[in-house]
Amino acid sequence: MKVAVIGTTGYGGGELIRILHNHPIFRIHSIHSTREEMPITEEFPHLENIFEDSLKKVDSEKIAEDADLVFLATPSGVSGKLAQQFYGKDIQIVDLSGDLRIKSAEEYQKWYKHDCVNEETLADAVYGLSEWNRENIINARLLANPGCYPTAALLGLGPVVAAGLIEPTGIIIDGKSGVSGAGKSLSKTTAFAEMNDNFRIYKVNQHQHIPEIEQQLKLWDGHITPVTFSTHLIPITRGIMTTAYVQLKKELTTAEVIELYQETYLNHPFVRVRKENQYPSVKEVCGSNFCDIGLNVDQRTGRLTIVSVIDNLMKGAAGQAVQNANLMNGIDEKAGLNFIPIYP
Ligand SMILES: NC(=O)C1=CN([C@@H]2O[C@H](COP(=O)(O)OP(=O)(O)OC[C@H]3O[C@@H](n4cnc5c(N)ncnc54)[C@H](OP(=O)(O)O)[C@@H]3O)[C@@H](O)[C@H]2O)C=CC1
Ligand SMILES: CC(=O)N[C@@H](CCC(=O)OP(=O)(O)O)C(=O)O
């Protein structure tokens, strides 16, 4: 199958190349960004002698004629416009941005601060939380790949929320991300002198992933009320940890909760649930498509602490995008994603 990647010179696009280069079914047919004709090795010298194609113009007619599937690894706003151009053509679309995830146009405008794609396109987009929306993903032509923080937070919360085991009010989620989560553009907040030896909170109560997290939680339990979600930048390159705090409705032991998670994710190879008293760290998933989860019930407060870790560029972006593209095409969901995490 021929695939095209738009936004190849970015961090998410670069990660797509790393995965797709060894994929057994997908072949990279063309790569694109605003810098047409430039060999990709000018931006990514690490690809020298491995993959040296040149970037091509973004021509949606031609891409749709030549390729079977297109990955949009482009910024919010750009992705929406491109999705609109490809929509209705004979090509599958997997968008890594936030432009197709929020079903309410009003909510999208409120959090993303610009106009949303048209209603018809939005209605057709399938939310690609791979482990939880498989039936719809299998039939999707237009796929909204989840955000990095929502992936970690939702995989962590899903089993207890869907089972109705927690109070629907007062959910708190604390997220920490490495700086590659912000993309490759230069900015003061991600500059070395700002981030090295530092740790900061950002977008307090204003993060664009809040409506995405709430939308999915409400599908699991319609009684869920607004969540508190805080994001922090930490001085690492890759990796996200989310820690969620939820109140259990009834007394449960940590062992019982772990059993529920193990059963829920039994047939989902990319989610690994830690044993009692073991908690994951970001290094344990770095470079891989795994989401590792650790759990603990505090018997004093009746609260459950849920720790999830992912690599933001893999399960949080390109890895889950390929997992979804596999599912959309009836391919083994692990195809091309059989990476052992890079440790230490
Ligand atoms: N980084 C992460 O961990 C995650 C990112 N995402 C989302 O994935 C998308 C890509 O993110 P990321 O790779 O980090 O971003 P980057 O800023 O690193 O890369 C953006 C890419 O988009 C290209 N681009 C920008 N404007 C256009 C345009 N008008 N036409 C064609 N190409 C364009 C750039 O190419 P050039 O400069 O060569 O023109 C570059 O290749 C974003 O929507 C982001 O929100 C989602 C989850 C996690
Ligand atoms: C560290 C960092 O800055 N991360 C970015 C993640 C952005 C992202 O992935 O955006 P979408 O999912 O909305 O496309 C942020 O917090 O905004």
UniProtKB/TrEMBL annotation:
Q: Which residues form the Semialdehyde dehydrogenase NAD-binding domain?
A: 2-140
The reply on keyword S-adenosyl-L-methionine is: no
Active site residues according to the UniProt entry: 148
Compartments, as annotated in UniProt: Cytoplasm
**Pfam family of this protein, just one?**
Semialdhyde_dhC_1
Pathway named in the protein's UniProt entry? Amino-acid biosynthesis; L-arginine biosynthesis; N(2)-acetyl-L-ornithine from L-glutamate: step 3/4
Q: What does this protein do?
A: Catalyzes the NADPH-dependent reduction of N-acetyl-5-glutamyl phosphate to yield N-acetyl-L-glutamate 5-semialdehyde.
Descriptive protein name: N-acetyl-gamma-glutamyl-phosphate reductase
Q: Which gene encodes it?
A: argC
